[in-house]
Design a protein that fits this description.
Belongs to the LysR transcriptional regulatory family. By secondary structure, the protein is of the alpha/beta class. The protein is built from twelve helices and twelve strands. Strands 3, 4, 5, 6, 7, 8, 9, 10, 11 and 12 form a ten-stranded mixed sheet that branches. The chain has a two-stranded antiparallel ribbon with strand order 1-2. Helix 1 packs across helix 4 and helix 11 packs across helix 12.
Length: about 325
């Protein structure tokens, strides 16, 4: 018995077994009925068994045929699935991207039109989700991810060093300043709004800056930076947030630094992440180059705005970064 049966024979056999008629299988496969009959006879000759029996003008599987059909149809489904994945992954003009939700809304979406205008023939799919990509099971070209850069066995490249500092609306700041006292005392009276998924948390910041804060007001905690930024813009309290995400508000003046006394903390926060093999794809390479350039311009703007408010910055120590 041959150890390596002809794949065409197996494909013809699977179609006949599934559809029940040679003519239907021939139509689906685009070959003649005679060709299919010939291949099935050859397959039965290889195995030395009958695979079909005819019942009321319809072919039904023998026990041996049923065993072979179960194995063949499963194998062909896997092969077809792999072929579809390979075609999608190597499609030159379609980019599949995953991105951290708030970063996607506040940063990437404001810039994507420039990329689309530069590459008008490209298809683009962007999934804004907190779930990191499983590149072994999902068809995704690259992930733009917020984090510490600790992704084993993956290519990771920091594109933006974040600047984090206390921010609030001008009106809320004026209210706190009207009460008098030092900057630290004013912050002690403030309502603190927390983003629980931020890498840099209020508790660490307060210890680092020697600020004692007894929160008498109900705690406000959220899992999205976009929500805390919106609340701060409305004058609900003070946030410890990213200039990357709040840059437009700082430009408009709807948010301001709480005080230039407190320097912004700087650390690598936003990353290109993908399997090393993906970096060889032209579409990934071109998009990554575009993101790097956009990120470089963004960091220059952030530094300029920081200077305009009279604020400085310092690099964060690794031990200060905590996952909320």
């Amino acid at each position: 018995m041959a150890l390596n049966p002809n794949l065409n024979s197996l494909a013809y056999f699977e179609a006949v077994a599934r559809l029940g008629r040679v003519t239907l299988a021939a139509t689906e496969l685009g070959v003649s009925s005679a060709a299919i009959s010939q291949q099935i006879k050859a397959l039965e000759g290889q195995y030395g068994v009958m695979l079909f029996r005819r019942v009321n003008r319809r072919l039904t599987l023998t026990l041996n045929g049923e065993m072979l059909f179960q194995a063949t149809t499963s194998a062909l489904q896997l092969i077809r699935g792999a072929q579809a994945t390979i075609r999608e992954q190597h499609d030159t003009y379609n980019l599949k991207l995953r991105v951290s939700p708030t970063f996607g809304v506040h940063w990437l979406s404001n810039r994507l039109k420039r990329f689309i205008d530069t590459h008008p023939d490209w298809g683009l799919r962007v999934d804004a989700t907190p779930d990191f990509t499983n590149f072994e099971t999902e068809v995704v070209d690259l992930d733009l991810r917020y984090g510490t850069g600790a992704w084993n066995d993956l290519y990771s490249e920091c594109i933006i060093h974040d600047l984090v500092m206390p921010l609030c609306s001008p009106d809320y700041l004026a209210q706190l300043q009207a009460g008098g006292g030092t900057t630290a005392e004013q912050l002690g009276r403030a309502r603190i709004i927390r983003c629980m998924k931020a890498l840099y948390q209020w508790e660490i910041w307060m210890v680092r800056h020697g600020v004692e804060h007894v929160e008498k007001l109900p705690k406000l905690r959220f899992d999205r930076s976009s929500m805390v930024i919106d609340l701060a813009r409305q004058g609900a309290g003070v946030i410890l947030e990213s200039m990357t995400l709040a840059l437009d508000d700082l430009k408009r003046g709807t948010l301001v630094p709480f005080s230039p006394v407190f320097p912004a903390v700087q650390f690598p926060a936003y990353w290109i992440v993908c399997p090393p093999r993906h970096t060889n794809r032209r579409i990934v390479r071109l998009f990554s180059e575009w993101v790097r350039e956009e990120a470089r311009e963004h960091e220059e703007q952030a530094q300029a705005i920081l200077a305009a408010y009279g604020c400085t910055h310092r690099p964060v120590e690794e031990m200060e970064l905590v996952l909320g």
